[in-house]
Amino acid sequence: RLAAQDLTYDGLVDAVRFDLIEQKLKHTSESLGQIAFSVGYSEPSSFTRAVKNRFGCSPSELRKQTQTSS
Questions:
Q1: How far apart, in whole angstroms, are the C-alpha atoms of residue 50 and residue 44?
Q2: Which of 23, 36, 50, 70 has the largest CB neighbor count within 10 A?
Q3: DSSP code of residue 42
Q4: Angle, vertex CA 10, rays to CA 12 and CA 61, nearest 5
């Protein structure tokens, strides 16, 4: 079914994960470590690298951007 819509399971999981990261950065005061762990990253460095690859900035920079744009 996913292939029929040109989706993969991993791609879908990533989309949901990054949406959740954005929401948590924007609407909570959870630490970056707590957010990383809650979305499935066991290492903060992996979380930071993934966020930088996806959004082009660090998690703390993304938090500042999302909080100032609301």
A1: 10
A2: 36
A3: S
A4: 70
Mean pLDDT across 58-67? 90
Q: What pTM was estimated for this model as a whole?
A: 0.83
Half-sphere CA count of 17, side-chain side, radius 13 A: 17
CB 2 within 8 A of CB 8: yes
Query: The tokens of 37 are what?
Result: 């762990």
Residue type, 20: L
Instruction: Please measure the distance between the N-terminal and C-terminal CA atoms of the chain and give it in whole angstroms.
Output: 36
The pLDDT tens digits of the residues spanning 20-47 come to 999 999 999 999 999 999 999 999 999 9
Length in residues, the chain: 70
CA 61 – CA 1 distance, rounded (Å): 37
Residue pair 37/48 in contact by the 8 Å Cβ criterion: no
